[in-house]
Amino acid sequence: MKFTPVAILSVGLLGYSQAFSPSSAFLASTRGLNTEYKNNVGLSMVLEKPKKLAKIEQLKVESEHLIQPLKDQLKTEDIGVSKDAYQILKYHGSYQQTNREVRGKVKDYQFMLRLKQPAGELPPELYRLIDDLSAKHGQGDLRATTRQCFQIHGILKGNLKTVISSIMNIGSSTVGACGDVNRNVMTTPAPFATPEYQEARKWSKACADLFRPLSPAFSEIWLDGEKAATVETWSKDVEDLNVDQAMLYDSGRGIILPDSVEPIYGDRYLPRKFKIGVTVPGDNSIDIYTNDIGLVVICDEAGELEGFNVMVGGGMGRTHNKENTFARAADHLGFVPKEDIFEVLKSILASQRDHGNRDVRANARMKYLVHTLGIDNFRSLVESYFGKPIQPWRETVEWKYNDWMGWWEQGDGKLFYGQHVDNGRVKDEGDFRLKTALRVLVDRYNLSMILSPTQSLIFRDVDPKDKEGIETVLREHGIKPVEEVDPLSRLSMACPALPLCGLAQTEAERIMPSYIERVRSVLDKMNIGEEEILMRMTGCPNGCARPYMAEIAFVGDGPKSYQLWLGGSPVLTRTAYPYMAKMNNDDLEVTLEPIFAMYIQQRQQFEAFGDFCHRVGADAIEQYSSSYTLGSVKA
After folding, report:
1. Which regions of 444-576 does DSSP assign to beta strands (E)?
2. For all residues of the chain together, what is the average pLDDT?
3. Omega into 189 within 30° of 0, i.e. cis?
4. Which residue from 9, 117, 351, 504 lies 20 to 30 Å from 408 (Cα-Cα)?
5. Are 276 and 291 in contact (CB under 8 A)?
6. What is the mean pLDDT of residues 569-594?
7. SS3 assignment, position 572
8. Who contacts 577 (Cβ-Cβ below 8 Å, separation ≥6)?
């Protein structure tokens, strides 16, 4: 994407000017063709010579649409790839990693591969394949992510092509699972047969198809230039929506770029990663407010799709000690009729593509653009691409949170079963043999799965006569029924962190179970063991486990310490606030007990813990804690 000139919007993002590359539609607004937008925004546009591209932006331009230097690097005898090749490899769905606990002069480079699974769907033949691939070419386990897809860890460079080509040829993909493009599109995992839920699944796949990268790099590198043996399964499910036609439709308002390879993304793709979630009114099982775009299906009383409520500007990532980076819950943009939704989605993405911050990567997510402009001005920007006003947001039922674990009726005579997985790790370890159990169930009953937004699994389309057999298989492999899982565990999430994540400052997945046990002990001791508190943990501030939405969050800020965040909503509609930095591992109990004591004494009727912390605020909690005597309060 090459633009001349470059426009400087003198809006100032927390103290500095921000450079954007303008769309033709946006530039037209400054020439009097769309003066309403310019006047409403009140921003000055000053044309200047193009600045030198940031290194990552230059790399994208020179990559020949994500081919080089990766293609050449994969041919070398080295066990890893160069830094530049690694940046391009992310777009292909893989991260280069090394075990940080293995000491030595030569790093043991290995690769994590992330699948692309719109709506979290996993057909039985795909599970069999990745189960085999993880055993033969990985470290023997699988990990469910917080965006409803599986990761395979421990792949060696020489095996990447075998693994990726196998996945592509079975009708799946890793394309766009990472990188500055639209990531895996989430949706509520509950496979109900109602019209709303069916539309949510369908349109999550449509969004994935609409914003898929079109570069030939993926087939050229992994399939030697040949087409995949099977079309991606989700594309087949949305053939009636004519997604390609909608993608390539050019309104002349600057959405479609003069790039024959990537007409939506251009050769610089997006400033940063881009996330979309789709759900139904009332079901916030996907953390809808954490997405760049959130879609809420709106149907009429007869179950016919009318359109979507659209929210924009959510995101979790931040950096310690940089106050101009922050977690943010999305704003309500408005309602969009179904016939306009593709063009509005393209308009939102084009707004971020052309006006997002490409100079400062820490401020490159769309949440900063929405925050800087404000939702009304951002809406006007989107409308300048779209060409007409966006309708007001439609009021719907209140949000609720449900992890959809246990047995449920789908509504079509079939059942579905949610199986809790601690922090998403599918493995065999001692008497706990979840990985083997899943393979037995898939082979015996040919079950399809859906990965949940909380790193767990759902078996869908279960024949009622198979219910007892499924329970028996799980029990024989040491898997607890959901009734025996601590609610604190069901509500918790943690990122992988150490030893493989290069960004981790401390533990997360490996230490979270002990944190849950310790919190459980404090709650029981204070006679409030019935409280179900949503807790999350990450090893760094990037927010992969969406900690900033939790009622209690532990965010790694040192080798054995965490920031403590409080006050997120139990229904995941607002961000928490930072309460304490550098909480030592050993101080968990003495830190939380005063807060729980204040909750016991000052909570309102039926008030959830997160709502209480949000209401009273950090200062009040700190003041109470400073004079609290340990062991003095019980319910």
Report:
1. 448-451, 457-462, 493-494, 535-538, 552-558, 561-566
2. 92
3. no
4. 117
5. yes
6. 98
7. coil
8. 565, 566, 567, 614, 617, 618
